[in-house]
């Protein structure tokens, strides 16, 4: 059961550290994107081509099968999994067969979605997150709060506290200060041992090329390259919508996440994996598996919401969203936060589960549409989801009744005028010092933290009518 | 004749990403290596060298010893990678050797000027561990393998005569993170310092 939005909102707004960090970091990332485009006149042309290729790809239901055949042809293994349970079962099967107990993971949102870590832990398999941000929140027992920077809600001294606690648990020396290099060096040292001893590496996938079976991982820290080349087994979990048709598509697609997320032409590491290690090669895994994850994606295909599947998880919409900038990712109460999360979460699960996201966490300002490299019209989808929530009876009766009455009165000029006259009478009960405080029904709650100006003694329409009468007498 | 415009653009981009760049064309290779190592590695130590059969530098190990390094050589052979004495490497031993190296040396397959990236291959004849486990990585790059755009490089990769390598890594700067307070920190899991030594096409 998710906590109610007012509780999540209240907690986020009380967290001064969180809001200071968000206010500092998010505008910088957003400006980075704008500058990167200014700096590279052809980037816009490439972005539009990339968007078109993504749109074609999510409409093409045969791509997953083609990708699976290409992976198998190069010595890899491929399978489709419906949900977290099937994904975990696949991994547990491998672990049992190989006697493996230790998994290292590179950052992957789809595995968060599948709650893979908890499922593997329940089967006695130890999972270590190795992206710095994911490592911090794993040690702290938290969820990621930003798609690119999962620990963005913590400042350096809070990170130090997490590491000091962890060091005590590990029986190792704690970081001496909250200097960023010192904190990073602590994580590097601890995780190095995990990389070298792990049995299985688990990653997500940014893209997967159907033509060649090539998996793309875009990272900055280098942990994904450890995870994919040091253990004997590499399992990639890839959302079925991440498949693109041809190798040539990569030219326009590879730069999209870094350009739009942080304003770089490419991230530090763009890794392309086309199979397990060859005979005579020592690096890389003996077994390479790709699991294509549905988990609700096929129910979005072919609907008016289909373009949501073209998302490349760059994070650009998080960085510009005025709501996200105030409350951060945890306030969404779901794996995917930010504007895209407000669409993805109800679409992947159900509207009943998360109709608060499209309703309450969007001001329809359209900043996300402007920033989105795939031109996903999120506000349009939010309005459609709000309508659907009303149709499905997910709104409290009082709310539906209020809005129905409101729209009934305002449908005609005569109803509008009548409602104004009525409001002018009724507001006498609530007017305090020229402001409305309190009111019947929803208005009472609304004005608890806001002021509403009263209806004017004479509206413009009434004034105009009076002028007309005087003139024509 | 190697076109100079992509080289200049690559150099500027690579340096803007804090990469070290040294143009060794027309220079004595030993002297050039010494210079780039001075900039790249704070203190000499074990150096993991993955020899590229398509790009032999026979005296590399000797030169490294001369500079105070302890070369750890990986040489591709029909039976799998062997060390400097021709003995086969075990996967586990190579992993450990790579993990204790102060420097990794490997060759770049190609580079992209527009993004400032170098592609390294992981296949039978090429290794990516030198670019991953040591805190510094030196890439030997042929001047005729720098392409203007990412598309040019990817086309070359797509039509490699030996097929797609199992692993290809496009390196664009050092290992880095912005995960704490969005502040850039260099050198997380991979190398903090990356260098390119540009050499003649032949």
Q: Low-confidence parts of chain A, pLDDT < 50 over ≥5 residues?
A: none
Domain module tally of chain B: 1
Q: Radius of gyration of chain B in whole Å, from Cα?
A: 16 Å
Strand order of the biggest β-sheet of chain B: 1-12-7-4-2-3
Which range does the strand content of chain A fall in? 5-15%
**Content-based structural category of chain B:** alpha/beta
- Kindly report the oligomeric state of this protein: heterodimer
Alpha carbon gyration radius of chain A: 26 Å
- Figure out the total of helices of chain B: 5
Average pLDDT confidence of chain A is 94
- What's the count of strands of chain A? 12
General form of chain B: globular
The CATH architecture name of chain B reads 3-Layer(aba) Sandwich
State the CATH topology of chain B.
Answer: Rossmann fold
Give the termini distance of chain A in whole angstroms. 66 Å
Report on the biggest sheet of chain B: 6 strands, parallel
Which regions of chain B contain 5 or more consecutive residues with pLDDT less than 50? none
List the strand order in the largest sheet of chain A.
1-10-7-4-2-3
What does this structure look like?
The complex is a heterodimer of chains A (473) and B (202). Chain A is built from 24 helices and 12 strands. Chain A has a 6-stranded parallel sheet with strand order 1-10-7-4-2-3, sandwiched between helices. Chain A has helices at 5-14, 16-38, 43-59, 63-73, 84-98, 109-113, 116-122, 132-140, 156-170, 180-197, 223-229, 250-253, 256-261, 316-320, 322-327, 338-348, 351-354, 356-360, 367-371, 378-391, 397-409, 413-426, 442-446, 460-472; strands at residues 77-81, 102-105, 126-129, 200-203, 207-209, 214-219, 233-239, 243-244, 269-273, 287-293, 431-432, 435-436. Chain A is of the alpha/beta class. In chain A, strand 11 and strand 12 form a beta hairpin. Chain B has 202 residues and is of the alpha/beta class. Chain B has a single domain (4-174, 187-199), classed as Rossmann fold, CATH 3.40.50.10420. Chain B has a 6-stranded parallel sheet, sandwiched between helices. In chain B, strands 8-5-6-9 form a 4-stranded mixed sheet. In chain B, helix 3 (60-66) links the parallel strand 2 and strand 3. The mean pLDDT of chain B is 94. At the A-B interface, helix 2, helix 8, helix 10, helix 11 and strand 9 of A face helix 4, helix 5, strand 9 and strand 10 of B.
């Amino acid at each position: 059961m998710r906590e109610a939005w007012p509780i999540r909102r209240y907690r986020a707004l009380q967290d001064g550290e969180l809001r200071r960090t968000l206010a500092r970091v998010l505008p910088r990332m957003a400006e980075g994107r704008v500058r990167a485009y200014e700096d590279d006149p052809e980037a816009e042309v490439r972005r539009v081509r990339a968007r078109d290729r993504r749109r074609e790809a999510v409409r093409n239901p045969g791509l997953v099968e083609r990708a699976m055949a290409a992976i198998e042809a190069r010595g890899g293994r491929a399978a489709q999994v419906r949900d977290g349970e099937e994904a975990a079962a696949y991994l547990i099967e491998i672990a049992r067969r190989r006697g493996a107990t230790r998994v290292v993971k590179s950052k992957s949102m789809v595995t968060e979605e599948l709650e893979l870590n908890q499922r593997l832990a329940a089967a006695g398999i130890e999972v270590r997150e190795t992206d710095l941000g994911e490592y911090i929140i794993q040690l702290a027992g938290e969820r990621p709060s930003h798609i690119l920077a999962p620990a963005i809600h913590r400042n350096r001294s809070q990170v130090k506290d997490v590491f000091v606690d962890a060091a005590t648990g590990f029986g190792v020396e704690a970081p001496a200060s909250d200097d960023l290099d010192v904190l990073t060096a602590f994580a590097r040292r601890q995780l190095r041992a995990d990389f070298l001893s792990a049995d299985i590496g688990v990653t997500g996938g940014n893209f997967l090329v159907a033509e060649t079976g090539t998996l793309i991982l875009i990272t900055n820290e280098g942990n994904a390259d450890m995870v994919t080349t040091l253990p004997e087994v590499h399992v990639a979990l890839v959302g079925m919508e991440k498949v693109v048709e041809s190798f040539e598509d990569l030219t326009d697609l590879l730069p999209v996440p870094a350009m739009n997320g942080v304003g770089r032409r490419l991230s530090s590491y763009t890794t392309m994996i086309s199979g397990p290690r060859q005979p005579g090669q020592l690096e890389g895994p003996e077994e390479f598996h790709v699991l294509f994850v549905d988990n609700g994606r096929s129910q979005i295909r072919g609907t008016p919401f289909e373009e949501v599947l073209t998302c490349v998880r760059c994070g650009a919409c998080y960085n510009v969203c005025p709501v996200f900038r105030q409350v951060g990712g945890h306030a969404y109460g779901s794996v995917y936060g930010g504007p895209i999360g407000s669409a993805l979460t109800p679409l992947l699960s159900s509207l009943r589960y998360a109709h608060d996201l499209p309703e309450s966490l969007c001001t329809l300002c359209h900043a996300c549409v402007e920033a989105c490299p795939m031109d996903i019209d999120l506000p349009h989808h939010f309005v459609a989801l709000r309508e659907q929530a009303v149709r499905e009876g997910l709104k409290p009766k009082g709310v539906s009744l209020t809005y129905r009455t409101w729209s009934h009165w305002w449908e005609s000029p005569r109803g509008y005028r009548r409602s104004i006259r009525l409001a002018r009478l009724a507001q006498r009960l609530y007017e305090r010092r020229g402001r409305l405080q309190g009111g019947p029904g929803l208005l009472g709650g609304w004005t608890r933290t806001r002021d509403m100006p009263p209806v004017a003694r004479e509206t413009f329409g009434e004034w105009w009518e009076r002028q007309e009468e005087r003139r024509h007498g | 004749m190697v076109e100079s415009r992509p080289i200049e653009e690559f150099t500027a981009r690579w340096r803007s990403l804090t990469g070290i760049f040294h143009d060794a064309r027309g220079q004595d290779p030993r002297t050039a290596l010494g210079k780039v190592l001075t900039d790249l590695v704070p203190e000499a130590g074990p150096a993991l060298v993955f020899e590229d059969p398509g790009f032999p530098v026979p005296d590399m190990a000797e030169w490294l010893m001369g500079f105070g390094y302890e070369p750890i050589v990986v040489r591709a052979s029909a039976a799998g990678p062997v060390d400097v004495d021709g003995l086969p490497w075990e996967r586990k031993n190579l992993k450990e050797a790579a993990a204790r190296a102060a420097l990794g040396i490997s060759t770049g397959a190609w580079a992209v000027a527009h993004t400032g990236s170098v592609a390294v291959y992981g296949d039978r004849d090429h290794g990516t561990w030198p670019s991953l486990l040591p805190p510094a990585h030196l890439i030997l790059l042929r001047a005729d393998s720098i392409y203007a755009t990412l598309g040019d490089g990817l086309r070359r990769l797509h039509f490699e005569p030996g097929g797609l390598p199992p692993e290809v890594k496009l390196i664009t700067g050092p290992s880095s993170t912005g995960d704490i307070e969005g502040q850039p920190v260099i050198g997380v899991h991979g190398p903090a310092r990356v260098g390119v030594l540009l050499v003649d096409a032949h």
